[in-house]
């Protein structure tokens, strides 16, 4: 994501984002671990990527966050770094521990056998996601590693079954050391957008999706549309709202910041509205602590209820960085997926959906930014046989 202003000579439309257009692009699509511990549904996920600058990152977890809140089925996110990959790399490593730590900290201090109400659980998840994003920025700015986590959560009651074991800490510790050593004395620079999803499942297997967004990565969903008997009715809609200086909500907040002398909002010669000092093209971001204070790390959290039926056997969430949504708007993505599914006569699975969206974006405009698509597909019934390994596809541009 080209969020910081750089001096570049005039370029063609396909190169207007500030990086030369590659004529051949290698994409990688891989399935992520399935969630199959529920009786009535399972969750399949996949991610597809194409890299130009190497600043996009992602995270995916089905056990660690659940050690703090056993009703959590999945946590995943995409991070689009700018001014280098330091901050997106930190979030790839640190967001899951920060979310887990925030859930533990925000939970009642004393264990209780009383089940939390739906409203109290909603507030707990919302506040924990907001705290995790802010804690990520604070730790990043202060050169601190992510929090260390204990196996057990203070939210677990005496009568609750033990939470699943978190993954071995050796890999995470090694990644922390790599990050600290790689950045060295200049730790750390730049920033990142973040778009994350948390799936919560209650004892009756009712599913709630919480989407936390900071910046201009985006989450869309086809919930309630495009049933197996009516593929032509498919429609993806936005769950998150892009945080750019031109958006209505952000303009109100930025005007107040301008009056306090915290920021100058300027439209540059490329007709991109930016925040100065720093030249950021987003109004919310993790990191960028040496730039304007008006670019905050507070995410907007949106909740979405998921209902699976015989006619609507699956619901999909698609998280993408701005390299995707600057190329195709949500409406265009809907049209692409609808055409593919009508041709095949069935809904695309997570892996095919992620690969289709990425390849169609590349075919439309080439690559002038990193592109990442993460798909979470909640499907009725038990999972099919294991999916094959990652696909690597070469896309040749006209």
Automatic annotation (TrEMBL):
<dbReference type="InterPro" id="IPR001932">
    <property type="entry name" value="PPM-type_phosphatase-like_dom"/>
</dbReference>
<feature type="compositionally biased region" description="Low complexity">
    <location>
        <begin position="149"/>
        <end position="159"/>
    </location>
</feature>
<dbReference type="InterPro" id="IPR036457">
    <property type="entry name" value="PPM-type-like_dom_sf"/>
</dbReference>
<feature type="region of interest" description="Disordered">
    <location>
        <begin position="147"/>
        <end position="171"/>
    </location>
</feature>
<feature type="compositionally biased region" description="Pro residues">
    <location>
        <begin position="160"/>
        <end position="169"/>
    </location>
</feature>
<dbReference type="GO" id="GO:0004722">
    <property type="term" value="F:protein serine/threonine phosphatase activity"/>
</dbReference>
<dbReference type="InterPro" id="IPR015655">
    <property type="entry name" value="PP2C"/>
</dbReference>
<protein>
    <recommendedName>
        <fullName>PPM-type phosphatase domain-containing protein</fullName>
    </recommendedName>
</protein>
<feature type="domain" description="PPM-type phosphatase">
    <location>
        <begin position="46"/>
        <end position="378"/>
    </location>
</feature>
<dbReference type="Pfam" id="PF00481">
    <property type="entry name" value="PP2C"/>
</dbReference>
